[in-house]
């Protein structure tokens, strides 16, 4: 379990430091697979746990990366990430956030102990990294990927409280994320067709 | 009650299957009518006591359901006329003169109906994660509505809306999970940790630090969607670029849905005895929203953006009243109703103005009263109502909130509230009076068809009635909703 979480942290740093969009998409896919396996590692082979894990794995590990790959192919954009904040600074911020999450978790522990003491800090770091990618990257496609990482973080935190949450709700949240990504995908397609680029630099006309 | 949600969801699915305009229009208006009828029937029944159900109706939900249903009915009537005018094919953009197409009619009607279904679910859900799913669904259903006119500005607005609101609401989901953590030591909550009635009943046993964090995340998350400053950045763009009928629904019903979600979190914090903590935050956010909105209203040159900032202002008033509690809470719920009626009126009228004058610039609309007497009168009346002039409803509700602040001895809050309202009044009156009077333009504007005047007229008349006379059943509903 801890190995999987450490891999998750490494994937987050990869997302912050990598400059090629295809590799970002691949890494987000690996994250999805990890998140699908995590509940089984944490709680064993129970029916409900298997359902949550496998559906998460299918949606986050297979469907999302496939949709993003398609968006990338159709858009035929350059593969450069185009950061607003440099890769080195992004990585440094990532480390700081990880440290802050560790401190926070030590300060305010969960009332009921989670399956691994690394789970909560890693989840918070993923949330923060996702938010960071949304605001600090220019391309709309990368922002959508950032949203996925953000969702992954929330999902990981959800694992800490999985024994308390009913299955229907997990399914609903997953479904919502799926539709969100679909709608974003369609919007991305239109952005690309209208502007001939996926950069949000041209989405700056509306202001006061 | 389930049929209230199922009906628009099913008709939405049907709308995607057909391309015949006549059928789509009758689907839209028919669904709105039946939805309204069902809502009235439901409100006629005595409210059931709170239970462990995930979907149930209480006074607060009933009030927001009523607003949604009335506004959607009026909006759908307006939408039919609007869509008939927006015939298919390429059209010239009003602002920049470029060519664009509209989204397919079936998509638009289908998304409108899906939007109604998701908002109904928001009003009726009593389970916080179900509520979250419903609020996120409203975002997803309304995004294609904003991108009805397919050009680059509406696209920019849609992208901002999608991304900012999805991320915002994601934080609210994290807040829900924190709430699960806060309740994880309470054995009675183990079976259904986010059911609202159960949470309120056991609120005292929740773990306080996690509960506070959960409230902050929910406030930030749903506050983004509600348009509270400084989280409002998506709102002016979205409201100014979407078709007027969509703006009316977004402003009049969608913002309320987010407000309802915040009210639900407040129910829990108040039951847990930290009402002062959550209330203080709401008051602060409310005052910031009022201030930011007042500054932008004074400076804007675009009348749809002016209305959008006015929504930020009024959401600020709602947050302020809720945070103050007591009488002000009653006033704030009453104000939600009044604001929805008036703001929808004004956005619909703004649609008429754009059609006649081909502009959104305040300075280029002149001589309204002369050329379009009905629209002009509605624009003027709507402005008076919105700015809080007697005898319209918003005046009454703002007065109640003001009185609530004074009774609490919160004189600074009351003073800031009054000062920002005065600023907004100055800013808006300068714009609106100039538009209504002045030298008429040379080009005679088009006529005013009945469908474009009647729905806003009815809404404004309702607001006028509420200002003078509050019917007893409605007053009882508001009292029950505001008393925890």
Can you walk me through this structure?
The complex is a heterodimer of chains A (208) and B (484). Chain A has one domain (2-107, 114-202). The longest helix of chain A is centred in the first third of the chain and has 29 residues, at 47-75. Chain A is globular. The mean pLDDT of chain A is 84. With 208 residues, chain A is mainly α. Chain A has seven helices and no strands. In chain A, helix 5 (119-136) packs antiparallel against helix 6 (140-160). Chain B has 484 residues and is mostly helical. Chain B has a domain at 274-484. Chain B has helices at residues 2-17, 21-44, 59-85, 105-124, 128-146, 152-182, 196-201, 208-226, 234-241, 244-271, 275-299, 303-324, 327-357, 368-371, 373-386, 393-407, 411-436, 450-468, 472-482, and strands at residues 91-92, 99-102, 149-150. Chain B has a three-stranded antiparallel beta sheet with strand order 1-2-3, covered by helices on one side. The mean pLDDT of chain B is 89. Classes of the chains: A mainly alpha (208), B mainly alpha (484). At the A-B interface, helix 5, helix 6 and helix 7 of A face helix 5, helix 6, helix 8 and helix 9 of B.
């Amino acid at each position: 379990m801890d190995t999987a979480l450490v891999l998750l942290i490494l994937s987050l740093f990869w997302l912050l430091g990598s400059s090629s969009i295809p590799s970002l998409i691949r890494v987000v896919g690996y994250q999805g697979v990890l998140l699908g396996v995590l509940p089984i590692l944490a709680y064993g082979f129970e029916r409900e746990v298997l359902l949550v894990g496998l559906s998460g794995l299918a949606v986050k590990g297979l469907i999302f990366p496939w949709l993003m790959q398609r968006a990338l192919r159709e858009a035929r954009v350059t593969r450069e990430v185009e950061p607003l904040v440099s890769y080195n600074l992004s990585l440094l911020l990532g480390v700081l956030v990880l440290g802050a999450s560790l401190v926070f978790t030590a300060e305010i522990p969960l009332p009921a102990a989670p399956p691994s003491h690394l789970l909560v800090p890693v989840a918070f770091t993923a949330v923060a990294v996702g938010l960071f990618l949304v605001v600090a990257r220019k391309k709309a496609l990368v922002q959508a990927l950032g949203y996925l990482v953000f969702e992954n973080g929330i999902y990981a935190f959800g694992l800490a409280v999985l024994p308390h949450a009913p299955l229907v709700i997990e399914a609903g949240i997953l479904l919502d994320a799926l539709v969100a990504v679909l709608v974003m995908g369609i919007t991305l397609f239109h952005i690309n067709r209208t502007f001939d680029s996926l950069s949000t630099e041209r989405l700056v006309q509306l202001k006061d | 009650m389930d049929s209230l949600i199922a009906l628009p969801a099913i008709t939405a699915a049907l709308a995607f299957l057909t391309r015949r305009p006549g059928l789509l229009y009758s689907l839209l208006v028919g669904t709105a009518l039946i939805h309204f009828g069902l809502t009235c029937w439901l409100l006629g029944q005595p409210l059931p006591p709170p239970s462990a159900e995930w979907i149930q109706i209480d006074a607060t939900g009933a009030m927001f359901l009523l607003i949604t249903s009335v506004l959607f009915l009026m909006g759908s009537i307006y939408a039919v006329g609007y869509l008939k005018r927006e015939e298919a094919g390429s059209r010239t953009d009003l602002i920049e003169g470029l060519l664009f197409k509209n989204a397919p009619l079936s998509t638009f009607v289908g998304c409108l109906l899906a939007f109604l279904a998701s908002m109904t679910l928001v009003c009726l859900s009593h389970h916080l994660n179900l509520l979250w799913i419903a609020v996120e669904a409203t975002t997803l259903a309304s995004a294609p509505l904003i991108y009805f006119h397919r050009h680059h500005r509406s696209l920019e607005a849609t992208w901002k809306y999608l991304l900012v609101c999805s991320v915002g609401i994601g934080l609210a989901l994290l807040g829900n999970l924190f709430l699960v953590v806060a309740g994880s030591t309470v054995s009675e909550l183990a079976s259904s940790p986010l059911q609202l009635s159960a949470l309120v009943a056991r609120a005292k046993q929740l773990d306080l630090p996690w509960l506070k964090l959960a409230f902050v995340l929910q406030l930030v998350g749903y506050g983004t969607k509600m348009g509270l400053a400084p989280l409002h950045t998506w709102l002016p763009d979205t409201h100014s670029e979407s078709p007027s009928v969509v703006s009316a629904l977004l402003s009049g019903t969608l913002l309320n849905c987010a407000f309802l979600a915040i009210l639900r979190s407040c129910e829990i914090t108040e039951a847990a005895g930290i009402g002062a903590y959550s209330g203080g935050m709401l008051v602060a956010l409310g005052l910031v929203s009022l201030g930011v909105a007042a500054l932008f209203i004074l400076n804007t040159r675009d009348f749809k953006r002016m209305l959008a900032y006015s929504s930020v202002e009024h959401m600020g008033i709602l947050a302020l009243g809720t945070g103050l509690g007591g009488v002000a809470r009653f006033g704030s719920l009453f104000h939600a109703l009044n604001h929805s009626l008036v703001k929808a009126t004004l956005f619909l009228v703004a649609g008429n103005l754009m059609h006649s004058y081909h502009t959104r610039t305040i300075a280029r609309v002149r001589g309204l009263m002369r050329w379009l007497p009905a629209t002009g009168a509605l624009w003027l009346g709507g402005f008076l109502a919105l700015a809080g002039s007697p005898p319209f409803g918003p005046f009454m509700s703002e007065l109640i909130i003001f009185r609530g602040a004074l009774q609490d001895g919160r004189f600074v809050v009351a003073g800031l509230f009054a000062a920002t309202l005065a600023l907004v009044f100055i800013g808006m009156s300068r714009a609106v009076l100039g538009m209504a009077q002045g030298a008429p333009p040379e080009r005679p504007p088009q006529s005013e068809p009945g469908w474009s005047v009647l729905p806003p007229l009815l809404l404004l008349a309702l607001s006028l009635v509420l200002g003078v006379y509050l019917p007893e059943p409605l007053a009882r509903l508001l009292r029950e909703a505001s008393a925890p």
